[in-house]
């Protein structure tokens, strides 16, 4: 999918909002709406679900199968180089940590850090919890897509989506009642209410599939319900308005709270999905206007996300005593340093990694047989035909005519 101004804007808003949200812990006084910056992570989940879901589903719309090996290699080259560099810095240079203690290295290497959080003690690089969920998603979605594509029907897709949505709501409700609510009065000390909420409700992958699911369903509609997608594209302003109203409604729920844990997560995710949909509609200003400076921030979002808290900590250690007198100066120094370090990581590690990925893919393209040649053509053609009949609901002849 080509870079779209609306998606770039949402990426930039998400990363800047998250960075400002974390910055409030280092002193600068910011507007009250910044306290909701944590939803930037939820927005990233929806964007990832949409974009990664489309990568896997687009080949089926063309009568092909995804190249699974290529998909995993692309994800590895995209994520691991920058992540490993920042992880090495966290363990080799403890002075940059935002907290003296850090979880075991194997938690980060295996992307299980979010499943064993030690939020109030080992807090260094704790924001990697969301990257763990992304990595689990990269493993889970291909398996689900492959299974559904064997005997595809719209009913099976809907069943999996509804089961994932309702299952997450029921699980979070049960966990809240049994592992969080009984500790409501414990506001400090080990095992306090908020720590249990983060550990048992907020961080685990199985509780945070709502945003990814919402994004994937957008990709399903885009690929296999073109009439629905065209109808939605023509009403982008409606979806933008509804999405903003839904976000406000979700944020109005008490958090942490039972309602926000059970229905707030899916409500927020569906609302953000509506905004993502509006961002690719040519009928909205989001989809049409390319704002100067947004694209570079969007491109560097991953590097900025990885490094910003370590930068804040270093600035606080080295310059903190000189900054409290000027809120504007502090804001400029913290964000300017974060942008500088993020740019360096992007230019020296992340972007070269992506270029290496493209060269590696091209060099392997000629040496391997196409995926189609490794399976029986007749079986594959039948599977493709069934896929279109079950999900697209359109005749093969009509698609060929287009």
Low-confidence stretches: 369-402
Instruction: Note the main sheet.
Output: none
Query: What count of structural domains?
Result: 1
Query: Overall 3D geometry?
Result: globular
Rg measurement, Å: 22 Å
In N-to-C order, the SSE pattern is HHHHHHHHHHHHHHHHH
How many separate helices?
17
Derived from helix and strand composition plus strand pairing, the structural class reads mainly alpha
- In round numbers, the mean pLDDT is 88
Q: Kindly, what is the distance between the CA atoms of the first and last residues, rounded to a whole number of angstroms?
A: 20 Å
How helix-rich are the residues, as a percent range? over 70%
Percent strand equals under 5%
Overall strand count: 0
What features would you describe in this structure?
- There is one protein chain.
- This protein has 402 residues and is mainly alpha-helical.
- The chain has one domain (5-367).
- The chain contains 17 helices and no strands.
- Helix 3 crosses helix 15.
